[in-house]
Amino acid sequence: MSTPIVVAIDGPAGSGKSSVSKAAARKLGFAYLDTGAAYRAVAWHVLNTATDPADEQAVIDSLEDFGYVISTNPDEYFVRVNEEDITEAIREPRITDVVSKVAKIPVVRQYLSDLFRHIMATTDKPGIIAEGRDITTVVAPDAPARILLTASEEARMARRSAELPQQSQDQTASALRARDAADSRVSDFMTAADGVVTVDSTDFSYEQTIDAVVEVIRSRTS
Ligand SMILES: Nc1ncnc2c1ncn2[C@@H]1O[C@H](COP(=O)(O)OP(=O)(O)O)[C@@H](O)[C@H]1O
Ligand SMILES: Nc1ccn([C@@H]2O[C@H](COP(=O)(O)OP(=O)(O)O)[C@@H](O)[C@H]2O)c(=O)n1
Q: Which of 123, 167, 198, 211 has the fewest Cβ atoms nearer than 10 Å?
């Protein structure tokens, strides 16, 4: 089997990474890897086992029974921990509120980055699109196609608010701002590293963003 083509996409919350990567993977017949789901799943596992997310050693110890499985099929997405389906649960605000705490622990990052590289190397599809915060810089810096997907803070907040009608717009905006600030102390996902192509989706429709991303992937991998 030949080595799969790796596409790396990073960007801040609400820039469109998950939805656009999934759609682009469908168009190209590629697999899709949501790396943020793994950090969210660690946060879910930590809360589920009554572990204190601020206790770094306890979070690291909790990885011993972290039976993590994620689908990389863009048409059949699921996330499981120890056989429990947590696809929806990891999107709840209680998880979003603590995920940055577990994501800043270097041992957790190393553990998950190794897992991501293994998943990318063993896909049975011709390529895989992996998206997150540090894919273009740390997880897959040698990927032939690397994209920074951005959008103005205003656009990102409006998009996230539309997905979370149970939260007020103010709550969603301040949670998103706080998470971006915490996450950007760990990875730089606001400026493109050398060789990374920026796609700014602020004034694009969703379809236009998908087309722009697919175009970059095609031009870099053909
Ligand atoms: N131009 C656009 N580009 C990307 N996403 C858009 C656009 N317009 C609206 N959206 C919507 O914004 C949301 C972005 O959320 P998501 O893909 O989860 O972003 P991220 O993974 O970066 O947090 C999706 O619901 C998507 O349909
Ligand atoms: N490669 C990655 C991906 C996510 N993360 C962390 O995981 C969290 C959730 O990522 P996500 O991609 O689901 O977040 P959204 O931008 O989709 O809301 C982020 O807020 C980061 O704390 C990370 O540290 N590195």
A: 198
